[in-house]
Model the fold of this input.
Amino acid sequence: MLDDVSRRILRHLQNDPDLPMIELAQKANITPAVCVRRLEKLKTDGVLQGQRAVINWAALGYSVEVSLRFTLDKTQRGAFDDFIEQARKVPEVLEIHTFLGRVDVRLTVLARDMAHYQEIYRTRILTLPHINDIEALMQIATIKSSEVLPL
Done:
């Protein structure tokens, strides 16, 4: 799987993704050249999928987050594919997850306020194909949000 050097690199990178290469190499106890090669290999192997900006949407005026759970009409051929294809086109949909079980798909929707959410819901969500049932869960607070695991 991963050797100790790769684990050290990932451990430091996930705790501080903005570390300059030289600092990352120092913390991982390797040379910068080795660090660059290791990072490239981790990317090539699909272990490291990239770095991204984490945006505080509330600071930009998006204060309403809703998790919508859908049960689809699975008697319709291609229901999942059609639904997902159309859901991807809704700009306010941040996440799309599929499941096995009672819930088929979950969408995370972000809106400025309840009026904006209501407009998104009526004009974009309810028009998605193959919906059998929808359950909406209004997010009140984020207790934990992390992508950091012990390595």
Summary: The radius of gyration is 20 Å. The chain has a mean pLDDT of 94. The beta strands are 64-72, 93-98, 105-111, 131-138. The longest strand covers residues 64-72.
